[in-house]
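Support reply, case 0932

Customer input (verbatim):
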Amino acid sequence: MDPKCPKYLKVGMEVRKKKENITSFTDENRRPFFLVRVFSFLLLFLAISQCLHIRAYSISSEPAEAPLQASFQVLILNSYHPGYKWTEGLEDTLIAKLEERFSRIDISSEYLDWKRHPDEESLSMLIPVMEHRYGDKKISLILTTDDAALGFVLANRKELFHDAPIVFCGVAEERADAYLQGQGNITGVTENFDMEGTVQAILHICPELRQAFLVYENSETGLPTGERATEAFQRQKPEVEIVHWNELTADQIKKKSEALPTESVILYMAYNRDAAGFYLPMDQFADLLFENSSVPAFSIHDFTLGHHILGGSVTKSRDHAAVAAELAVRVLLGEKADSLPYLNDRAAFLEFDYNEMKRFEILESDLPEYSVVINRPFSFYRSYKTLVLIVSLLFLMMLILIANLIVNDRIRKKSARELRESHEELLAANGQMSAMNAHLQDTDVRLREKNTELENRTDMLTQSEERYRLVSNATRDAIWDWEIKGNKRIISDRIGLMLGMTHDKAERLQDWVARVHPDDISKLKKAMADYFSHRTDEYSVEYRIMTRDGNYRWILSRGIAIFGENGKPIRMVGTHSDIDELKQQQETISRMAYYDSLTELPNRVLLRLRSEAAFHAARSNHRLVALLFTDLDNFKVINDTFGHPVGDELLNEVARLIQSSVPAECTVARLGGDEFIVLVPNLAGAEQAETISKWLLNQFKTPLRTTTLQFHISLSIGISLFPKDGNNFDEMMRSADMAMYGAKNAGRSQYRFFDGGMDEQIRDRFALEEGLRTALTKGELKLHFQPIHRLHDDSLAGFEALVRWNSPIHGLVAPDRFIPIAEENGLILTIGEWVLREACLFRKRIDRDVAGDTHIAVNVSVLQLMQENFGDMVSDILHETGVRPGCLVLEITESVLMESFAQHEGTLRKLGESGVSIALDDFGTGYSSLTYLRKLPIQILKIDKSFIDDIRSADDENSHTGAIISLSRQWGLRVVAEGVEQDYQQQYLKKHQCDLMQGYLISKPLPESEAYDYARKD
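Our regenerated output:
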């Protein structure tokens, strides 16, 4: 272009050139952006296809087979005791699989307790009890777990179980042939622990291994297992030194394991009893032995993992039982057991405990191939890897599409703007040329004015900065200044005192927001957006900010902005105030208002709020809400006996157990005392509330431990359903409370749904309780005495004292109605002491006026036994009344003695040593068996009336009563038969040399005066 060309021609030529360049740029760049769109849509198609593939896979899954409608009677006989983890896994899986397949099936479980009592005499004692329980039942199938149960069934299958088919599991392959030789109508699954795989895993993790310490017990199972482990090491690495610890006690093993050389390991196998005879389940032994071991411990059992065991090629009881359950289903469906071959379960899994790996610094890369790590901390990416990849892919595609749209839009706007500007420049070129001269003349004047103004502004700025520094130092708040257009913020040094960090340089808003607590970012952004859009008059927001040490503090941020002519903010200044201490005080007040101070569970106030919210949702969704009103049985006596600190510790254990036993969506609240409420929202039917209640009651069958004591606690549960049983919180609580009292009336460890008739029942119960509180002082309680005779000469041996209540309002009240009420409210302690004293006075009167040697028998409640001074109280009454200890018999029910044996054994043995006799009452109605009689501190056994009723004639050979009498006499126990009503029953008992009897054949219970006359006539 000619340099002498006029400026307006230059401008026109530049505009035309710009148009040509823009057109060329647009045409040339349209093609690449088209390819970007195609690529983006291709990625979107692949992601949608992946999602559809996953969805299709889930839809195509076949529905589970519906349960078959059949009725079967199945007996599961376990070699070991309840709570043993291996047995628990086998039994739970067998029951679950059978109940899943059959809708009508009756499953009974029995335990031989072979781990704790491994002797044949114990098994023989179970035969009469098993015959009594199952002799009249038609058993469809017997499932046995482990060796002892299989041997017991094979030895007694014809006499006890009518040759029912058998499916066994948990039996070693080499021992199964010996058991099953010559047997028919039987099949099962043999177990095969992967010793080779476990040793191979040990050598893989510890290639420099020099010593292996084998822990196993000296039993029929432990010794062969130790030999197999030794052979496996010799085959795979003969130079490893094998050290056997089967002759050591648990304390010796624990001490040795804490000081082992680094190039060694421990292999933990069958071990339930140490060389000194001390017994514990294997998982508890593992916690005891290896908590502080210096080298890793390996195992072949899955249930020991999580108990300081690193891992191994483990056998899982639930997988093993699942195979046996399939055989059981086939037998119940009609296939002959003989036609199904024995299966050998060789499945084992390489599993390792993350916590033990961390403890011994073992990496996942050190493990064998296909190993599974359990107890690993939760990882979102590992759990949802596919979802993360799909979401990331979709996010990437969205970014590409958005970038594509933004670039195209910017190009279009830029082209239009340049065309418009070029056109305007062309029109204004002439005017610019004419104004240029005048502009140059004015420029010199304006520059001189601006120089003067700049000098004045510099002085003002210096003064302003000085004032700002004084204000900043005087205030307790941090002052901030934000230049919005440049996105630069300056914060005063006061922020260092709040957060422990300096801010002497300007920073971007994004850097500050990055320190805000993730849960508060949205709140911060909303407050700023509302202020900038004039929806609020001021900017004020509370949020948490990260300090230098990584913790968070609450601050109150406030500010005001300067807005431009277009309404947009230009600059903003404000303060940050430290309100962390105020927030903590508010949280403390809120917790005190809504949570129980002892258990930290929600209190009645928070329960009411959550209940009303659940009721509102249930009305909208046409669902049900349940309130489970739970109350501890006899907690008041425990609290009064052992003190409030023990009671509070027990309440915390109860709260923990209830909260861990109900679904996560439930709310567990404590109203006070021993009352807990479970709010169960969004129920489809009442059966879900019933299932939760059953599960809760089952959890409390295991004793609860405090720091020093162990307690057997049971619950009474009342259930109310919204909206059937109430329209608001108060009505629902009242209905659940009445249902709970209905459960208490039915006995311990019960649940009841509310019904309309409970109101009257509760009023009757309260009336009985109120009358019972004054019955003793008003003389309404009386003792009756039932004679007890010797069988060999029909002479009077003594009396049993029985309490009776003749109420002027309620009439003659049966003991089974008022005794449970007395036990619940603690009156049984006063009544029991009165009964014991009155019975001894009666015995002293007979001793004074009637010749002969007789005793007096008194029933004792479990709450009396729990009193620390019970033994002293008995001694004081005997001394006060002058009755010899040998004339007193204390009768304790079988269930009481078995449930709390460890707590009461010392008291009972001390009483026995003083001469007082202890009698086991109602034998045969509880869980115990003859096996335990040798271990109990008793001298007398009272056979329950149900056994006496089974006697059909004097020569009855089918009754088990004779066997019980014979065994009891062999152990030096005197035997009393209760409820004798027929002559042939008396003849049968005399024939089998029973010691004593009582019942209506001799006499009904007599008032004191008639009993005294009876003793004189005898």
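We compared this against your earlier run and they match. Two observations from our side: The first strand starts at residue 68 and ends at 78. The radius of gyration is 43 Å. Please reopen the case if you see a mismatch on your end.
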